[in-house]
Amino acid sequence: MVTMRCMTPKRMQTVKVSLGPRSYPIHIGVGLLKRIGAWCEETGLGRRCVVISDRRVAPLYGHTVLRSLRERGFEVVPITVPSGESTKCLDVVGHCYRKLAAHRIERSSFVVALGGGVVGDLAGFVAATYLRGLAYVQVPTTLLAQVDSSVGGKVGINLKEAKNLVGAFHQPRLVVCDLATLATLPAREYRSGLAEVIKYGIIRDATLFALLERRMGALVRRDRAWLGPVVARSCAIKAQVVGKDELEGGPRAILNYGHTLGHAIEATSGYGTWLHGEAVAVGMIAAARLSRERVGLPEASVERIHGLVASAGLPTGLPPKAANADRLLRAMALDKKAAGGEVRFVLNRRIGQAIYGQRVPTELVRQEITRLTWLP
Ligand SMILES: NC(=O)c1ccc[n+]([C@@H]2O[C@H](COP(=O)([O-])OP(=O)(O)OC[C@H]3O[C@@H](n4cnc5c(N)ncnc54)[C@H](O)[C@@H]3O)[C@@H](O)[C@H]2O)c1
Ligand SMILES: [Zn+2]
What we know:
Blueprint: E1 12-17, E2 24-29, H1 36-43, E3 48-54, H2 57-71, E4 75-81, H3 90-102, E5 110-115, H4 117-129, E6 135-140, H5 143-149, E7 154-157, E8 166-169, E9 174-178, H6 187-204, H7 206-220, H8 224-244, H9 259-268, H10 276-295, H11 299-311, H12 325-334, E10 344-350, E11 353-359, H13 362-371
Bound molecules: nicotinamide-adenine-dinucleotide and zinc ion (ZN).
């Protein structure tokens, strides 16, 4: 469980994801990119690899990663894809497959995903499917990817019909989170990642939540002394949840706190208008208020959640244009996670503990959406 020891600053920390033969380490620290070659060697990966990155990340960090791998004798094929959500598509997957074929990538070769969640999901999907599965390594460079998407083995791409419609469960062999890469991340992207960190506190760890309340100023300034323990703790929570439910049959659903409404906000506003973490932030405010109504979360805790979200510079309400309750309710019912069309929520009785699969009367959801509207 949680100890303060793991939430004090350290140079490097390693969190283990325990999944039997599919277990892997997550290394977290500053300046780790140059050690990737050595870790890939230690992991016993093949001599040839493909580094998939995007056009923003490759010029910033590609060189260091390629050099680290080549210094250890790996033969490296770099592939650069456009940046942004639209890259997670079949066309780009096809482009990667053809590059892998042209370079005679074999079963013993591996894939390195260098970038945010988009590159991680795409490269992981390529690795999961090419030659019926190649080993891969995640090198996440956004806060969201470091604390969330790089851990747990969910990989996939979008179809024009909906997001993340095609995918697989394919665990990486190694995850390397270099906190130094976060320095170049645009402020909005960075804050969006903080929403997932807050979520971990709410669903699993009251100590983390309290630490975030005390240190949010330092975290917003990207103070690495506090980022290290917070990223490590977030990864440990995700690892623990995934370890209990690798294929998302049940308990992993608690990771969706704030996401029921969050996904609906993203879908109805046009993808890209809201960043994922911004939509989740508003979703968490709604989830906290619904928790008060349905399972007795104390009002003081609702206020603490609201205060923490606001202190991260994340939105706590919806502009009138986005607060169309009918549209949001329809989008929630269409979400692929709504079982048989029935919308279920993740709620919490207190900070640090969540319960999933909760039914909430539609009228109550409608009322809370209306309350979320910013008054001009
Ligand atoms: N697999 C999972 O479990 C899981 C979980 C959550 C989210 N996701 C997926 O993750 C994706 C979102 O990931 P994201 O928020 O990391 O977005 P992203 O990968 O699009 O990165 C955001 C932007 O920042 C740029 N960037 C990345 N790292 C940078 C750096 N260090 N410095 C400067 N710029 C940098 C990228 O080029 C991009 O333009 C979505 O597709 C979502 O579906 C997957
Ligand atoms: Zn999320």
